[in-house]
Write a structure and sequence with these properties.
Shape: globular
Strand content: 15-25%
Radius of gyration: 15 Å
Largest sheet: 4 strands, antiparallel
Number of strands: 4
Helix content: 25-40%
Structural class: alpha+beta
Length: 119
């Protein structure tokens, strides 16, 4: 739940960066082991597409209790990097393969706003 005051604070904070992105996904709890296993063998073609799109320091973190996944990556331009990976030829195949693991609506990235950064 946000308020106008919170929205203003998040929109004007100095911690916002075009170079860092954090997002949430939600995996079906009964598919967690399979989802984690799939990420132990990410296709090289997908890894290369992420690199070519400008994704760096990409990490996924899991809260196993409810299947919450926190993703984080850095790029010279986060918005451009997200557009580039969405347009990569491999992306539809990867998204289709991963789609079976997500809870309803859980495969849509929920981007989290930054509000503090200690450099």
């Amino acid at each position: 739940m946000t308020t106008p005051e919170l929205d203003t604070l998040l929109a004007t904070t100095d911690a916002h960066s075009p170079h860092r992105c954090c997002f949430l996904l939600h995996v079906r709890p009964e598919r967690l082991a399979d989802y984690v296993e799939a990420h132990q063998h990410v296709w090289e073609e997908m890894r290369e597409a992420l690199r070519e799109a400008g994704w760096r320091n990409y990490s996924l973190f899991l809260r196993a209790e409810d299947g919450m996944v926190v993703g984080y990556f850095e790029a010279d331009d986060v918005d451009a990097a997200q557009r580039a990976i969405a347009e990569a030829a491999i992306s539809p195949r990867w998204e289709a393969a991963m789609g079976e693991y997500f809870a309803p609506g859980g495969g849509e990235k929920q981007i989290l706003p930054a509000y503090f950064h200690l450099a």
